[in-house]
Amino acid sequence: MAGLPGWLERLGAELTSLGERMEERRAEEDLRDGPEAPQAAPEHVPPPPDYAPAVAPRPDPVAAVPWGMRVAAEAGWRLLVLAGTLWVLMKVISAIQLVVFAFVAALLVTALLQPTVARLRRMGLPRGLATAVTAIAGFVLMGLVGWFVVWQVMENLDTLSTKVQDGIQELKRWLLNSPFHVTEDQINQIAKNLTDTIGANTNEITSTGLQGITVMVETLTGMLLAMFSTLFLLYDGARIWKWCLKLVPAQARPGLAGAGPRAWRTLTAYVRGTVIVAMIDAIFIGLGIYFLKVPMAVPLAVFIFLFAFIPLVGAVMSGALAVVVALVTEGVFTALMVLAVVLAVQQIEGHILQPFILGRAVRVHPLAVVLSVAAGGLVAGIGGAVVAVPLVAVTNTMVGYLRSYSRENALKASPPPHGATAIEVAPVLPPGEAGEPK
Fold first, then answer.
1. Beta strands in 197-317, from DSSP E residues, in sequence order
2. How many CB atoms lie within 10 A of CB 236?
3. HSE-up of 376 (CA within 13 Å, CB side)?
4. How crowded is residue 105: how many other Cβ atoms within 10 Å of its Cβ?
5. Whole-prediction pTM value?
6. In angstroms, rounded to a whole number, what is the distance separating the alpha carbons of residues 316 and 312?
7. Do 269 and 275 contact (CB within 8 A), yes or no?
8. How far apart are CA 325 and CA 328, in angstroms?
9. Does some domain include residue 328?
10. How many domains does the chain have?
11. DSSP character for 56?
């Protein structure tokens, strides 16, 4: 019994040391199982039984969309951005329409006069003197043409008024004797309705006249802007073009630098060819009207010349104007003769003059001409119809050159063919060439 306390003391000491060792081992396991410690391998998951239904894995959402729909979506948002940009651009142009039309008119006049400046400089004249001589001569010629037209209209206005009244009476007699069974009361009622309409809209006509004064002021302002712009474009056009190229990103600058001169040559060829064709139309149709004794033959010829700058539509409008004047002044037979002259000259223009004078440099499909003239007329009136076709021609030239330029650069950047590829792309000469037996 005396040794019992010693045994209990030794057992307590061993239990204490065992507890300390277990605490140390638990601490070591906690350190080993910390966040930086490697995770234990997952337990093996048994495969599902054979009778379980197969579940297909869910694909990536991008891969689930069909390829055509993805392409359409990519093209769609780009088209929306482009349409928004064009809409904003059209709003800006409509806000400064006077300035835009004046500058476009200056470009067209410069394209007409610039070859003369180049010819005078080759003859030895300084650039400033050649520009001044060409611009003054061109502006004086256009001013004389305008004064001559106004003078002819004022000189023949009384005669035309008398002729129109006689023509209306002749038309009234023809309607009474025609198979349409038109009575005099119906004709008088139509005339009364026209008179009442004019009387009821007197205020609108007066306001239109007041707006006409504003239009005259804007027209004079646009003419002055066009004249100054033409002078600077004739004198310093090359330097202005180089400055514009600096606004373009450097990677696109070489291609645009090559496309710009080609577009300018297209515009020059279009304006020069259109002027020549318009002069031929005006001369021959004017001579036909003159020999048929239709009054105001010279003003009508000038109107035919001006309307020729609106492709397709302008020829129809000017020809219709000449036929109407002949109808109300000289009768049905003269009107039919004028119509025959107009149709003959326009056929010669469409099949001989335009292909020969304009050539392939500005050849645009007739459907593109009609659509561009219609769109230009809807957006900006007569000015838009005049500008539409040269804009389409210039854009066609630039796009064609840039496409060829990018294709050429792609071919230069591609590695040269080698091995079997070189044999496949090697040119095959026809028999009889390069020493082959015939």
1. none
2. 13
3. 21
4. 20
5. 0.65
6. 7
7. no
8. 5
9. yes
10. 1
11. P
Please report whether residue 379 resides in a domain: yes
- Measure the CA–CA gap between 143 and 400, rounded to whole angstroms: 38
Residue where the block lists tokens 């006077």: 98
Contact between 383 and 101 (Cβ < 8 Å): yes
Distance (Å, whole) CA 168 – CA 324 = 12
Q: How far apart are CA 215 and CA 222, in angstroms?
A: 10
Residue 237: Cβ-neighbour burial (10 angstroms; 0-12, 13-18, 19+): middle
342 within some domain:
yes
Q: How confident is the model at residue 433 (pLDDT cuts 50, 70, 90)?
A: very low
In what helix (H) or strand (E) does residue 299 lie, and over which residues does it extend? helix 297-307
Host H or E run for residue 257:
helix 253-291
Which residue type occupies 196?
D
CA gap 405, 412 in Å, rounded: 11
CA gap 59, 62 in Å, rounded: 8
Estimate to the nearest angstrom the gap between the alpha carbon of 68 and the chain centroid: 29
User: Residue 363: which domain range?
Assistant: 249-410
**Do the beta carbons of residue 117 and residue 130 sit within 8 Å?**
yes
How many other C-beta atoms lie within 10 A of the C-beta of residue 385? 23
Mean pLDDT of 381-394: 81
Over residues 192-199, mean pLDDT: 60
Cα distance between residue 297 and residue 285, in whole Å: 9
Report yes or no on 393 lying in a domain: yes
Lowest average pLDDT, out of 77-81, 191-195, 296-300, goes to 191-195
Tell me how many degrees the CA angle 107-355-297 measures, rounded to the nearest 5: 70
Using alpha carbons, select from 310, 342, 306, 307 the residue that is nearest to residue 324: 342
Write down how long the chain is.
438
CA angle at 12 for the pair 11 and 14, rounded to the nearest 5°: 65
Model pLDDT for residues 23-75, shown as the tens digit of each residue = 777 777 766 655 544 555 555 667 766 666 666 677 777 777 788 888 888 88
Give the residue among 374, 365, 353 at the shortest CA–CA distance from 278. Answer: 353
Report how far residue 37's alpha carbon sits from residue 394's, in angstroms, rounded to the nearest whole number. Answer: 72
Torsion of CA 19, 24, 29, 30, to 10 degrees: 100
Burial class (CB in 10 A: 0-12, 13-18, 19+), 196: exposed
- Dihedral (CA of 319, 320, 324, 325) sign: negative
